[in-house]
Amino acid sequence: MSQRIYYRITGGVVAAAHARFHAKFTALQSVRDAVIKEFGASGTYGNRHGVKGLLFTDGKTPPADWKRVPGEDNVFQPNPRTKTGRNLRDRLKTMKQVTAEDFQAEVLGSSDFTRFATFEGSSFRCAYIGFEILDNVLILSVPAHEANPFVPPDEHCVEIKMSEYWALKAADAKAEEVKP
């Protein structure tokens, strides 16, 4: 596990980036939920490039002309041999996941996904900026990277000590226990 540096966000550039990312994520979830409901599925199956099929579990069955995804017991795709199936496959492909790489691009203003990359032996390791909301505080989590360190974009991005980070984690966990 790589070392990370944590920042308390009180507004500014990072808060705006988080808001944009959250809006994209929420919009995608709404579209996925609508497709799941439309076809009576249990969930979606795919990767960051798009949804490859729909998951049908708990006795739910796919539409009759759908095809099983090879190697997956409960994942089905629309039949590509029909116009309706091709149109639906195209629709599913547009539902790309919103990822940590997208959040990092929002924060940094670029899509330089190798910004925090390291080589460890013969392995290439790529870490991303992330976030947590702890005890109602937005926390930015940045990989510690000596060769390419993160520079806070404004005064609203303040580095915190590890002890403060863990205190926020504990307070957040305690607040979760109290919720009914």
List the helices and strands and how they pair.
Elements: E1 4-9, H1 12-39, E2 43-47, E3 50-55, E4 67-68, E5 75-77, H2 83-93, H3 100-108, E6 117-120, E7 123-126, E8 130-134, E9 137-143, E10 157-159, H4 162-178
Antiparallel strand pairs: 1-9, 1-10, 2-3, 3-5, 4-5, 6-7, 8-9
Helix pairs in contact: 1-3
Short description, anyone?
The protein has helices spanning about 10-40, 85-95, 100-110, 160-180, and strands at about 5-10, 45, 50-55, 65-70, 75, 115-120, 125, 130-135, 135-145, 155-160.
Describe this structure as you would to a colleague.
This protein has 180 residues and is of the alpha+beta class. Helices cover 36% and strands 25% of the residues. It is elongated, with a radius of gyration of 20 Å.
Overall spatial form? elongated
Tell me the domain tally.
Answer: 2
Lateral arrangement of strands in the main beta sheet: 8-9-1-10
Query: For the report, how would you describe the main beta sheet?
Result: 4 strands, antiparallel
* Alpha carbon gyration radius: 20 Å
Mean pLDDT across all residues, rounded? Answer: 87
Question: N-to-C SSE series?
Answer: EHEEEEHHEEEEEH
Number of alpha- plus pi-helical segments: 4
Fraction of residues in helix: 25-40%
- Work out the strand percent: 25-35%
